[in-house]
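Minutes, structural biology subgroup

Action item carried over from last meeting: produce the structure token record for Biotin carboxylase (Roseivirga thermotolerans). EB confirmed the sequence was re-checked against the source entry. Recorded below for completeness.
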Amino acid sequence: MFKKILIANRGEIALRVIRTCKEMGIKTVAVYSTADKDSLHVRFADEAVNIGPAPSNQSYLKIPHIISAAEITNADAIHPGYGFLSENAEFSRVCAEYGIKFIGASPDMIDKMGDKATAKATMKAAGVPTIPGSDGLLSSVEEGIKLSNEMGYPVILKATAGGGGRGMRIVKSDKEFQKAWDDAKMESAAAFGNDGLYLEKFVEEPRHVEIQVVGDSTGRACHLSERDCSIQRRHQKLVEETPSPAITQEIRDKMGAAAIKAAEAIGYEGAGTIEFLLDKHGDFYFMEMNTRIQVEHPITEEVTDFDLIKEQIKVAAGIPISGKNYYPKLYAMECRINAEDPAHGFRPSPGKITNLHLPGGHGVRVDSHVYAGYSIPPNYDSMIAKLIVSGQSREEVIVRMKRALEEFVIEGIKTTIPFHIKLMEDEGFKSGNFTTKYLETFDFSKL
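Output recorded by EB:
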């Protein structure tokens, strides 16, 4: 087992990893930018190293700085968390070159699954259901129009290096194709330095359902059932839940089997997520694989009583998985609490938290790195906490979540708490009958 792990991240996920390491008797090293010197992950780690100024490209994305921090503290492993360098093949490769275990996917796995067009081709070859579309990248508008007519509109252009909804355009006819192509290429080149596009049939009335998987060095994988991530705004998840209100046991078994097939097809090692689009007919299609721990992993932990971070560390240390699959024993839901003003287009709201009270009680968990007096820097993602609630039924979870949200006091900044309270009161949400487009018609006027 590792003696010391450096966490190459910040905020709540860094603190989450530190907690599990402490329980496992493993020493921890925090890295931090100058903007994060007062963050709790710095305070609770055994050691902390400053790796640069506030901009992430000068600190958390600076591979030489992180490797240097690992070397001077004699860390024998690095946990990347999510975001930043967690799915960076070069970082995984450099860690191996310096004899430091990367607690995440290998460079080869990241390369295979990080490029969406390559990932889709890999999954198709493995027999995992995929959305009809182009075989790899499109070479021209003419090729795209021809394929669109064969599949039937609507279709969607996607950036091969994309994420967060950037480089995506829905196309409903031949005459819209050229502009959508130009816009998507320009946006993907600016965001990712790669303007490659591929084409898919657009799945109407979709739900976003993902399967948590864990694989080990023997090539074996298991799944821990699904998470429904359909409540999104501009392709950014706001609420996640498990089990999905749209999933039957039959679909769960089929989707779980497909996820295991996907993981084992690439010999996946560690914790990862296979993301699917589920249509209104109950058919599902591979969308992408995240070769890292997910923001929403706590709800899976709550319904299966399974520490995913601990399992990541054990697998990285060469300890094989049990091989059994895990199914929900409870219901759980996560609300992402962001420093944003939902009444004004979710505008970021950095600043000093003047007063803070965290909710509690049975079935309530809060993952956060903030405290009263903490100043939220404007340099990073706006998520400041995750409120996770579990219960015996979805109805109980919604009632408990509303109660917990009403107890959650954050003063000095704007947050998404008012939005989440209103969502918990919304009849459409409570019915469980919604798609990824649900918030497009949601009434934000009374927040």
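Discussion: The mean pLDDT is 95.
Next step: EB to file the record with the rest of the batch.
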